Amino acid sequence: MNETKLCTIEQIEQFLNGCTRIEFTRSDDDSERYEHISRVLKRFDYPRLSKREKGVLLRYLQVTSDYSHAQVTRLIAQWQINRMATIPLAKRYQAPTAPFARKYTALDISLLVEMDKANEDVCGPAIAHLLQRAYRVYGDPRYERLADLSVSHLYNLRKSTVYRVFRVVFNKTHPVRNSIGVRKVPRPKGKAGFIRIDTVHQGDLDGIKGVYHITCVDEVSQWQVEACVQGISEAFLLPVLELIIEQFPFEIKGFHSDNGSEYINRPVAHILEKLRIEQTKSRSRHSNDNALAESKNASIVRKHMGYEHIPQQYAKPINTFYQETFNPWLNLHRPCMYATEIINPKGKIIKQYKEKDVKTPLECLIHLNEKGLVTLRNGITLDALQRLAASKTDLAAAQEMQRAKSDLFASFAKQKRRA
Predict the structure, then answer these.
(1) Which residues of 71-87 are buried (b: 16+ CB within 10 A; e: fewer)?
(2) Which of 304, 330, 308, 317 is nearest to 229 (CA)?
(3) Tens of pLDDT along 70-110?
(4) How confident is the model at residue 10 (pLDDT cuts 50, 70, 90)?
(5) How far, CA to CA in Å, does 246 sit from each of 241, 250, 275, 376?
(6) Nearest CA among 100, 112, 102, 101 for reference residue 147
């Protein structure tokens, strides 16, 4: 390309505007492009140009040389330094003619692997000291080079491909060892009083945590108690946990949770031990151990409370709504599906949900009481629970719950507007 007729900045601008779709073939010889850059800078007397004109010329050299903005800027700076001495632009770097010589061979790395394996990968300074002793104290000539090995380069050799070929180490996942709770699935044998508990988080907003819902449900009768706390620390959780246990009309014999630290801790274990309640926790690689509580999270909490963020200051009114309206509706008026277990010819237990087995938790509790499978708390009678359930129809109880829930969410919006 002959571009010597471009002698003014206006012509360069017209060239750039008219050649937006022109692609220039890149030359493999950098010296030709260096000469082109030098000619253009000299022809336009680059040091005397204005700032705008220098910018135009810089874009022109980028297009014609196929160099980046940073590379052209460096070459222009180099040209301005050397132009008075008439030193032409030239490459000041080149690829090494020969690779760097290796000081430590594969035999040295194999000796390092042997030392690491025998000492079970102790720290770098200890291994470096052992390598020095192997040569200087015990006179083993194989460790002559390794005797001068620095600790920092020892870690480099451990990362090398040769080391990894010689030494492959597999670390198994270490289980969390916590003496609190028994890792097993509760076996209620048809008796009420073995509860499952789980926590649901009501979302984050700008890094701020929302409220936490606590779902606690009996495995056999499906008697369910919902609660709400500001956080899952001991200061918030312990008082609500005692309140949850008091809301069950029967004696609690088992308390099962996942392995979260909000329940697997000393204060919770102390409360359960005081009440003589067995604490169990889910097993590793058994995702169904706490499936009942998790299914209630989806069918109850998420359905009625949604997924949107609820600030922590609303935990107290939500807990009041749960205790006064929501929990009575859940246990006295909301039907649940109860499974019938059938053993197939292969010996596998299959659960079937039949229409005749649909009943409310209170009806299930009455059925269990007839069989002697439930122990009611002192001062609690089934007649009192039945009178409470008969005081309003199922439809009226559901409508009352919906109105209370609407008023609850309306109070949230009202407080947000005031804020």
Answers:
(1) ebeebbebbeeebeeee
(2) 317
(3) 988 988 888 888 877 677 777 776 666 666 778 899 999 99
(4) confident
(5) 9, 9, 11, 12
(6) 112
Could you report the per-residue pLDDT of 368-416, keeping only the tens digit for each? 999 999 999 999 999 999 999 999 999 999 999 999 999 999 988 877 7
Q: What's the token pair of residue 316?
A: 């107290």
Residue located via tokens 């069918």: 299
Residue 231: closest CA among 244, 222, 240: 240
Q: What is the pLDDT of residue 384?
A: 93
Identity of the residue numbered 379:
G
pLDDT, position 174: 67
Structure tokens at 132: 């020095």
pLDDT tens for residues 158-181? 999 889 888 877 777 666 667 787
CA dist 407 and 392 (Å) reads: 20
Sign of CA dihedral 392, 396, 400, 405: positive
Q: What is the pLDDT of residues 136-154, one digit of tens each?
A: 999 999 999 999 999 999 9
